Write the structure tokens for this entry.
Amino acid sequence: MLGGGLAGLILGGMQQIAVVPMILEAETYETGGSEESEATPGDEAEVEPWAPEDGAERTFWTVLNSMLVGIGFGLLLSACYALRGRVTWKGGILWGLAGFAVFNLAPSLGLPPELPGDAAAGLEQRQVWWVLTAAVTAAGLWIIAFQPKPYLKLFGVALLVLPHVFGAPHPEVHGGLVPDELRTSFAIATMLTNAVFWVLLGVFTALLYRHFGGEAEDPATA
Amino acid sequence: MSTVQNTKHMSASAQTTMVTMDTVLAVSAAILIGTLIIGAVGFAAPEVVHSAAHDLRHGLVFPCH
């Protein structure tokens, strides 16, 4: 939890520098559009019951949520370490990269990073596809990494490919209100910040797992 | 003699079972809590939750809006 919180804090910091300015820029396109269009969920602050004020309050909530999500992902990594027995910090890097592949890379192959104002298919469909893709990718990677038999590894590769053959839900009309350059640099920024976050999370959780979890578990039950 | 060995063997295997049960419990709890947190921050529908986590959801490449 400590490692997750710390990596989440760093993620929050990186996002504030690299990612959030682009979201804010995109929102100027979003709110600049026609006010009455309810299909594009623009102008949240006015329509919704509560939204954090821009500035310090908004930053606070984003960073707090980054830490929470860091703890959440950290718990998942720790669970993997416990299942595998031991872990080194170098192993932590690999686990982190696997997490990046499962939760960022694979889903974004089908659903590119979105900015406010982007056209996209229905939210629930996309969330379902996202969750299934992450789950199937995780299973595929696990099988490839830990199953010795070649035909099982092939099955793992098939699992990795499956969600992309099936295809992500896409909107009927592509594009959005945001210029393409902004969307491209947003995609690069999110991928980079998330990759760094996952590697740090892997290393932190691996080191802390060795200190607390991994060694405390054995004597406690012996 | 063989009874003693048997008892030793049994208690050893009982311990192994306890360790694995503990691990299973810990792993399940970690996965459950982790998934709940990620679900709440990344996917929960209520507008208030969405608004608070909005920028992060975009930053994590989660589906948003």
